[in-house]
């Protein structure tokens, strides 16, 4: 299984390419959705990496996939400008996902 990146910045794609992770740079929502759909059907992709900018554009689709499927593992990463989310993002995500307040 491979890791694959969908990015909205060239810097992220180049950085991960240096680590041996291939990917694509897309900026419009339609192209991102098509590539996301292709990737989740590709059985060779074990980890799908999305930059936060990409994740924000298709968040509902990603969250629906995460809740209903185990593969591929989807990971959001910050771009070169740093983390866009607040510090309590993970706690809020757990609260929304399972309804338990931490």
TrEMBL record:
One of its GO terms (molecular function) is proton-transporting ATPase activity, rotational mechanism. Keywords: Ion transport, Transport. InterPro entries: ATPase_V1-cplx_f_g_su (IPR008218), ATPase_V1_fsu_sf (IPR036906). SUPFAM superfamilies: AtpF-like. It holds the Pfam family ATP-synt_F. It comes from the Bacteria. Belongs to the V-ATPase F subunit family. This is ATP synthase subunit F. The lineage of its organism: Bacteria, Bacillati, Bacillota, Clostridia, Peptostreptococcales.
């Amino acid at each position: 299984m491979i890791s694959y990146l969908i990015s909205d910045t060239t810097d992220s794609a180049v950085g991960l390419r240096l680590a041996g992770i291939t990917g694509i740079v897309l900026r419009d929502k339609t192209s991102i959705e098509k590539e996301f759909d292709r990737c989740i059907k590709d059985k060779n992709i074990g980890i799908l990496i999305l930059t936060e900018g990409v994740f924000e554009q298709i968040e509902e689709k990603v969250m629906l996939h995460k809740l209903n499927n185990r593969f591929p593992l989807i990971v959001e990463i910050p771009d070169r400008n740093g983390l866009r989310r607040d510090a309590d993002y993970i706690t809020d995500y757990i609260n929304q996902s399972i309804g338990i307040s931490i």
